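look at this fold:
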Amino acid sequence: MKKNTPLKLTDDIELTPDVDYKAAGINWYPGHMARAIREIKEKLKTVDIVFEIRDARAPLASGNKNLESTLRQKSHFIILNKANLATPNMIIQWEAWFEKQGTPFMFIDCFDKGQMKKMMAMARTIVADKRRQSNPEVPNPKTQMRLMIIGLPNTGKSTIINMLAGRTAVKVADKPGQTQVQQLIKIDKDLDLLDTPGVMPPSLAKEEHGLWLSALNAIPDDVVGEELPAKFLVDHFRSLNSKEFKERYKLESLEIPTEEIIEKIAVLRGCLKQKGALDLERVYKLILGDFRKGELGKCCFGVPPKDE
């Protein structure tokens, strides 16, 4: 089988893949996102703090560098959601890196009510401290707060809002890009929340980031297709010799080519057409679905940048 140029799948693991991923040129920036970024910048002056929701499995790639300079104008709190799906030892490394950057952050599982309460307590402290600095003569700053939630599609913004509201305040959709307008939501008497559409950066810093974000479902499958992200995931778990991946699909070894692993999964899971032909489209969807539900084990894409 033809081999291609080695690709750094996780910044610290090199693997010679069976697929030329770089030819894909993955990017996604529909027109409503440019409008959404303009509206975010316009509304920043009306809020006290910005929650930037990221995916804990890709702490940098799921951020939006296009908004960094804008967010310096406001209290900025980075929320790394889906930490329950991320590799614990990598979270420790990322926490140490974020600590050095100076921007408040927290790794959470948004379904954990205790973590959600801690997140909001931290946010209120950040806002109260900022108010005291701005008006030191006021001994008891007001407690009312308006926060804005931003982030890439499918990082869990809608679920976080619903958890905070204690009701279905916004619709949760599996497909990225469903929210296309801002909406103001009353959480309680002291808290208003401005929800914004998921926005991607106009371009991705590294080509492999498109694969990471496609696998995480930040970029829709109908933009990229299921084949490349699914094959990337098989390459990724093959490079790690993942015990969970092998057990999930009852594979004896991952020391075989990606295509062969996919064929074995197709047979073992009954992804077959008439006369026993392999239904590869079905197996690609199966692998992506299992990964997104956390059934292939915890993982992280990328490692913290080294200090210059």
The longest strand covers residues 49-55.
